[in-house]
Amino acid sequence: MAYLKNEALIDIATFLAKRWSENINTSVEFSDKNIVITKINTNKIILPTITKYAGNDFQKYRQFRTMLWYCAMRLRFCEKILSDDHAFGFILNTIETRRIEILGRRIWNGMDDELVFNYAYIWNYRPILNNVYNKVRIVEAFHQYFIIGDVKGEMSSSHFQKIIDATKYSNKILEEAINNNYGTKWLEKKIPDIIKILDIDSLLTIPIQVKNRNNNLITDNHILQTIIKISNKKQYSENYNEKIFKGRRISEEYKNIIEENIKNENKKIYANEIGIKIPSVDDEDETSIRDVDLINRLKIKFKKLKINLKEEFANVGDEFDFDSYLDKHKPFFLDNITSIKTKIMILLDHSSSIAKNRLEYKKATLALCEVLSYLRIRFSIYAFNTTNKEITCWLIKSDDSKWDDVSARRLSKIEANGGTPLAEVYTKMKSMLYLKKPDIFLTLTDGEPTDPDAVRNAIRSFKLSNIRMAAIGLGYNTLHVITIANNLKMLGYEKILAVSKVNDITDKILNILDKK
Amino acid sequence: MSAINNSELVEHVEYIDWNNSMTLLKKAYDAKLFVLIIGPKGTGKTTLVRKFAPIIHRKLDSINFSLRTRESHLIGSKTLIDGSVSFIDGILVRSMKNGSMLYLDEINSAEADVLLRLDEALDDRRQIVLKESTGETIKSHDNWFVMATINPLTHIGTKELPPQLISRFPVRIKLDYPPEDIELKIIQKYLTENHDEDVKQGIKLANTLRQAASVEELYYAPSLRETIAYGKMLDSGIDKKEAAYLIFGNVYTQWGNIEYQKVNDIITSMF
Ligand SMILES: Nc1ncnc2c1ncn2[C@@H]1O[C@H](COP(=O)(O)OP(=O)(O)OP(=O)(O)O)[C@@H](O)[C@H]1O
Ligand SMILES: [Mg+2]
Question: What does each C-alpha distance from B88 to A19, B61, B74, B113, B134 come to in angstroms?
Fold first, then answer.
């Protein structure tokens, strides 16, 4: 079975999190640390990478998905989230978890099986009470008893009575909160009561062992037994323990993700064979290069162009001649803009000359991709840089995948380094180019390749195989722009745009993508 | 020439005037102010107009615009009848002459030349020169009344309406997706049995997908037509989850496996 990569998950995870949280600004990130963080003010969810869960890949995925659901519910229903570092916050979060679960299940009915399945793991991730010391043991016991209705290990009967009382009280206030639509802040005011019942200090430090999940070794049988135990205790959907264990409801979803994953892996293997690499993006955050204003401005600007042929019933078509119509409106070219049928391959120069404008450059290129994808133009995008004298071509997005956060993160990840050995880069790209046969091959460069003659030859041979060669040159002032434009013309590009401000690229890009 | 749109043969169901559109339409009509109805597909724009016509006892002429609509559909064309050439009026000219109610559906799907002729007829003189025929000037009947609908720009195949044409319709009624409880009431009108809880879930799903489409994360948003169809599937005895896949999920295969899968995952977590 293919090893499930985080980047195969990020797209679907972000989509689900946005829908579940009913918030279009929700974003998802992975962390190598074994922690779950939901940031309400920035709408961000940070989850442990998929490898951090127990079980096989499918079981890992199910836990991951449920964890994501809880985080989305937190974003949706919590007014604030306290840290787990001290008893006060830990207890509040414990009760909040149940509150958001109850509210969430009202909408997301289909989660029930997954929640039970997840509880089986949660139960196993909890520490045994005998290994937890001092008053923390009471807090942990309360957590276990409130969440699962049982405790792992032993404790004194006087302590246990406190746990039972605190749980009773917690359930009572929880019910009150649910019935009256009270939120986090209302519950927060009741936490001191619970602290009192438990007879602990609200600032009691909660150790990692209790805060985080403990990866105990567990067998399938163990999980199945726990499922039976839990689903009997809780009034979740029907008592189909086997069914819950097998998780058939989401196995289809999982199969598709795996298939995508394999496709991506194959692409990577192929790309690798011909010397093209793919940046790894697990910990990359692309928000710094996402210029939302710029993107929106461009989208508005190009909105008019977003026209397709509309299929309509020929209810007024008594004399309509479809062929002559199409003749007149040749393959849906609108205002000379590249048709949706055109395939474009873009190559981004990431030599050191870009470095000083790094942020602007990335913002502009990311905005460009957003707009191309918005216009539903088919494109692939690559970049090159040089480290330790070695040229690398990077794949940011292939032409058959969608522009998404993963591609944006890849773009963000690539560093600007080295010279502009364009001919060598073209040679590396050759087999990809001939395989994909784009209609237009567009290079974004500072326009001063180290090997002009070789570049000229490469361009000529690409043109011979019917690929239109286009270039955008970046200069640092008006005079330099003129020089660059001349350079590019000498090199043999058919379509040239030279600018001194990176932002001009996006505004003028469609002129250069015109097929004629 | 028939301008009746087969798919919109209105069922005999009561129209729920949930945001007062019918009342506004009547007021605009009384003041002889032409009306533009704006809203995404399937929010009841056509139904509103069709239900309005009989209320004020008027005949309705309607035309549904597309890229294929031509000037001649509006103005008319020369046709050979029994060996002699005569000019048959198009729907615009006919409606102006008869003073009927003219309904221009999805007017922003029309091509520029078509819009130009509309503009001519709709300006304050309310007349049009038949340059295609004898060159005579047709003045509109006093009772002539015009309503038009436009879909928001995100809708495939739509263009921005030129400002001068927009100004011909000074009353603009917005018809968006209704709130959940209203949508439930509308759907109930089409059902014979009570499936309220299940229908509510379907509406919730539809709204989730509509929201995703509004930020371009999905290529398609389900309309009231779909939520009604979903209700009817429940009526016919189909399980709610299966109905959800049938009506809301499967359509997304059009945009590839991933798009489809995303929507399916949402359905799985909801049903
Ligand atoms: N307020 C309402 N009361 C009763 N039925 C309604 C109402 N609104 C919408 N419907 C029903 O919803 C369906 C879609 O409505 P309709 O065809 O009028 O929408 P539309 O806005 O004209 O769509 P389009 O933009 O695709 O032409 C129809 O079956 C209609 O009867
Ligand atoms: Mg309509």
Answer: 54, 16, 11, 20, 12
**Predicted ipTM of the assembly:** 0.76
A314 and A216 in one domain?
no
Is the residue at A216 inside a domain? yes
Nearest CA in chain A to B72: A319
Give the range of the structural domain holding residue A18, as residue numbers without chain letter. Answer: 6-253
Question: How far apart are the CA of A458 and the nearest CA of chain B, in angstroms?
Answer: 36
Burial class (CB in 10 A: 0-12, 13-18, 19+), A10: buried
**Which ligand 1 atom sits nearest the alpha carbon of residue B47?**
18
Nearest residue by C-alpha to atom 16 in ligand 1: B44
Domain parsing of chain B, residue ranges: 17-174, 178-270
In chain B, the residue whose alpha carbon lies closest to the alpha carbon of A323 is B68
Read off the CATH number of the domain in which A430 is found. 3.40.50.410
List strand residue ranges (DSSP E) for chain B, in order. Answer: 35-38, 60-64, 76-81, 84-89, 101-105, 127-129, 137-139, 145-150, 171-174
**Helix/strand/coil for B56:** coil
B262 touches chain A (CB under 8 A): yes
pTM: 0.72
Architecture of domain B17-174: 3-Layer(aba) Sandwich (3.40)
Check CB contact of B215 with chain A, cutoff 8 Å: yes
For chain A, 516 residues long, give each residue's pLDDT as a single digit of tens: 345 666 678 888 999 999 999 999 898 988 878 888 999 999 999 998 888 888 888 999 999 999 999 999 999 999 999 999 999 999 999 999 999 999 999 999 899 889 989 988 888 889 999 999 889 999 999 999 999 888 999 889 999 999 999 999 999 999 999 999 999 999 999 999 999 999 999 999 998 888 877 766 677 877 877 877 777 666 555 557 778 888 888 888 888 888 877 777 777 777 776 677 788 776 777 888 888 888 888 777 776 555 433 322 333 333 334 344 334 433 333 333 445 567 889 999 888 877 777 888 888 889 889 888 887 788 999 999 888 888 888 999 988 788 888 889 899 988 888 888 888 899 888 888 887 888 889 999 877 888 888 999 999 888 888 888 998 888 878 888 888 888 888 899 988 888 887 777 777 776 676 654
User: How many residue pairs from chains A and B have C-beta atoms closer than 8 A?
Assistant: 109
Structural domains counted in chain A = 3
Q: How far is the CA of B250 from the centre of ligand 2 (A)?
A: 23
Task: Establish whether residue B62 lines the binding site of ligand 1, counting it when its CB lies within 6 angstroms of any ligand atom.
Answer: no
Report the nearest-CA residue for atom 8 of ligand 1. B44
Q: Per-residue b/e over A94-124, b at no fewer than 16 CB within 10 Å?
A: bbbbbbbbebbbebbebbbbbbbbbbbbbbb
In-domain check, residue A143: yes
- Beta pairing partners, B85: B80
What is residue B53's DSSP assignment? H
Q: Is B13 an 8 Å CB contact of chain A?
A: no
Q: Do A78 and A172 have their domain in common?
A: yes
Q: Is the dihedral of CA A318, A322, A326, A331 positive or negative?
A: positive
Q: Are residues B265 and A250, on separate chains, in Cβ contact within 8 Å? A: yes
The answer to whether position A506 is within a domain reads: yes
Report how far ligand 2's centroid is from the alpha carbon of B50 (Å). 10
Is B204 within 8 Å of A107 when comparing Cβ atoms? yes
Measured between CA atoms, the residue of chain B closest to residue A322 is B68
* Position A273 in a domain: no
